[in-house]
Amino acid sequence: MRIATFNINGVNTRLANLLDWLKAEAPDIACLQELKATARQFPEVAIREAGYDAVWEGEHRWNGVAILSRVGAPVVTRRSLPGDPADRQSRYLEAAVQGVLVGCLYLPNGNPRPGPKFDYKLAWMERLIAHAAGLVTVDAPVVLCGDYNVVPTEADIYDSRSWKANALLQPESRAGFARLLDQGWTDALRERFPEQPPWTFWQYLREAWARDAGLRIDHLLLNPRAAARLKDAGVDAAVRGRERASDHAPAWIELADTDPA
DNA sequence: ATGTCCGCACATTGCGGA
């Protein structure tokens, strides 16, 4: 089973890119972030015609997350992250598909820093850590994937000099991600490429794609039951080079159908 | 500080968010 995560940066703006990728790579499950569409604007019909059932959580202009599946309709288990009923931003969606629990998340960017946006990012991370503590021990495969907006280590960015003040690299952001891993989650791309993990994001500015000036901020975290099934992981980087591409590329894992004996 | 991209609104440019 292949599970992918893709910050689409506008599901309607990039619909042709999305459909091309779904057709070419045919992930069994695809988590999308930054839909930038209300629930009504979500392109349900085009996605169904591409062979996918979908569940989604929309929002006007910003954020928005979806889970697509071509191996059975996702059964929603959560539509928001617990811990703050006043938080109306659509950044978390969780569903069961084919015996796998999938959490699709869009962690706040947090810029500019310092300020309320960075505070919100850290508060959101705390809520994620609290919720993930309950998921890591689930006696079934759990995959927490999405745009974490965190560059975990210096190996996860082309050159950090011009990013020093950015919320994606701050010690607090990295500490939060490390605390998640300490719960027992496996960072799949890091596991697959321990020396040099691939980038998942190239900003639009300064010809970052052409220079391969990338960052790794999209992550697939696996609980022990999912990690035991990990066969492969990668990034569909070529997607970033297409016309009118998202600034992110899809990242994916391949899980064995059953636990190893 | 800058750069790029996009959709929306006090709309035919400016702005926020990334």
UniProtKB/TrEMBL annotation:
<feature type="binding site">
    <location>
        <position position="7"/>
    </location>
    <ligand>
        <name>Mg(2+)</name>
    </ligand>
</feature>
<dbReference type="GO" id="GO:0006281">
    <property type="term" value="P:DNA repair"/>
</dbReference>
<feature type="active site" description="Proton donor/acceptor">
    <location>
        <position position="147"/>
    </location>
</feature>
<feature type="site" description="Transition state stabilizer">
    <location>
        <position position="149"/>
    </location>
</feature>
<feature type="binding site">
    <location>
        <position position="147"/>
    </location>
    <ligand>
        <name>Mg(2+)</name>
    </ligand>
</feature>
<protein>
    <submittedName>
        <fullName>Exodeoxyribonuclease III</fullName>
        <ecNumber>3.1.11.2</ecNumber>
    </submittedName>
</protein>
<comment type="similarity">
    <text>Belongs to the DNA repair enzymes AP/ExoA family.</text>
</comment>
<dbReference type="InterPro" id="IPR005135">
    <property type="entry name" value="Endo/exonuclease/phosphatase"/>
</dbReference>
<keyword id="KW-0378">Hydrolase</keyword>
<feature type="domain" description="Endonuclease/exonuclease/phosphatase">
    <location>
        <begin position="4"/>
        <end position="248"/>
    </location>
</feature>
<feature type="active site">
    <location>
        <position position="106"/>
    </location>
</feature>
<feature type="site" description="Important for catalytic activity">
    <location>
        <position position="218"/>
    </location>
</feature>
<dbReference type="InterPro" id="IPR004808">
    <property type="entry name" value="AP_endonuc_1"/>
</dbReference>
<dbReference type="InterPro" id="IPR037493">
    <property type="entry name" value="ExoIII-like"/>
</dbReference>
<feature type="site" description="Interaction with DNA substrate">
    <location>
        <position position="248"/>
    </location>
</feature>
<keyword id="KW-0460">Magnesium</keyword>
<feature type="binding site">
    <location>
        <position position="149"/>
    </location>
    <ligand>
        <name>Mg(2+)</name>
    </ligand>
</feature>
<dbReference type="InterPro" id="IPR036691">
    <property type="entry name" value="Endo/exonu/phosph_ase_sf"/>
</dbReference>
<keyword id="KW-0479">Metal-binding</keyword>
<keyword id="KW-0464">Manganese</keyword>
<dbReference type="GO" id="GO:0008311">
    <property type="term" value="F:double-stranded DNA 3'-5' DNA exonuclease activity"/>
</dbReference>
<feature type="binding site">
    <location>
        <position position="248"/>
    </location>
    <ligand>
        <name>Mg(2+)</name>
    </ligand>
</feature>
<dbReference type="GO" id="GO:0046872">
    <property type="term" value="F:metal ion binding"/>
</dbReference>
<feature type="binding site">
    <location>
        <position position="34"/>
    </location>
    <ligand>
        <name>Mg(2+)</name>
    </ligand>
</feature>
<feature type="binding site">
    <location>
        <position position="247"/>
    </location>
    <ligand>
        <name>Mg(2+)</name>
    </ligand>
</feature>
<feature type="active site" description="Proton acceptor">
    <location>
        <position position="248"/>
    </location>
</feature>
<dbReference type="Pfam" id="PF03372">
    <property type="entry name" value="Exo_endo_phos"/>
</dbReference>
